[in-house]
Amino acid sequence: MKLAVLLAAAMVLGVASVGVGESSEVSGVQSNGGITPEVWSDVQEAQIDGYFSVKCEPKTVGTYTYQCPSDNGSIGTVVVEIYKTTDGPYSGITFVNWSSTIAVSYVWVKGGPHGGSLYKYDTSSYSDSGLYTPINVNNNKPSDVSHVIFYYLSECVQPEPEHSSVKVTKLDDDTEEPLGGWVFTLFLKSLSNGGDVLWSKIYQETTGEDGSVVWEELDPGDYKVEETLQDEWVSVCPSNCSYEFTLEALEVKELQFRNKRVPEVIYGTISGMKFYDEDDNGEKDDEEAGLPDWKIQLYSDSPAGAPMLSQVSGKELVDEVTTDEDGEFEFSGLDLGRYYLKEDMTTEQAVYWHQTTPEDNWFVVELTPQAHNVADVLFGNTDKLTAEEPPQEEPPDEELPDEEVPEEIVEEEVPLSKPPSDEVLPEVLPGEVIPEEEVVVEEETTEDVGDQIIAEAEIPLTVLPTTGGISPEILYGLGALVAGIGGIIRKRGKE
Q1: pTM of the model
Q2: In 3-state terms, what secondary structure has residue 37?
Q3: Mean pLDDT across the chain
């Protein structure tokens, strides 16, 4: 009779604020949600006025789902999990976790001979964990759970919309710095009447200075976030610039996009001149001009990491150019690496020219990020026909002793005939000629104009060098002979 009166009073009040048969020796265990239960002794189940209830009677540990009907026909769901603890003072004892799609006001946990624990919630509670039966005074531990009763309002109040959110963070993969100014688009997945997947664009935002975008108050569903890739950047994570995911109720989804800048592509140039090495010294002097119309060839290593050039074999011809009117050439747009340059001398050019620099006909050029523009590669040539030949050293004169002088190089003195004692001959140097006094020969005219009269020739006397010359006596004799012949000719002419 006493129990019935107390239960009736509890129904009228609509709450169970006083434990029936409550004993000071029996206590309840606080739940993980911070709810301390009221313990009702010797009672199988609590009766709460104005609330609907659903009873769960698990036979063993496990997860159980129950439907919670209401007076307006709506259905809620409550899920009960029964587990055994594995640590702490109550190890091995069963306890209760629960969740519900409708608001729960009370949970009754019964087990053992000491009644049950009544956990009281407000109308906004939809889950809790770590619920126990009352403490057994015999062993100072809770008893195992025998059944659980959930009490909820008759109108079956539905929970507030369980909104979710998505947060995007944009980072530089190299520096870990946030990237502002990046555009992100949020899509919601749906199906067409034909079953095709459709992605509907619902939001588009740009990251701020902190590199983040947040979308809130999202309903559960299937979503996709996609970034708009910027020039000079590549996507690192995700590789396809987008994430697809399912958003659960009350979930905060955090997504990270990482990008890095595309490395700057550096191209190199090699330039120089083909010049006329006029002085054949292998160096370009200011006054030495360029040579046009010469072919310059560019080679590279065929195998990667090849050693320095030792021969043409194994080298690949990359390009060739012809020197311009100033003898200049250039190779541009080259990838970084090692190159080899040489001039391509034709057979005709080889007849007239030879190379003075470089000595082995090859230039080796290494293009690096720090030195990718190489100039002043100079090829020098000189003309074979006009090139100066090295001077020949003359052997020193060999002095011979006086007695060994050859006879042919000794001048022999030829004695001259002495002139009359009253004449003094001038001193004559070798090779000098002194004219002889003219001998006047009278010309006799003749009436026979047909005859040619030969006058006496004027024979100058020449003093010749004494070495190998004709003596004056011979010359005087020749003059007298000529004069005599002339007289005979004149005499015959008169006859």
Answers
A1: 0.35
A2: coil
A3: 78
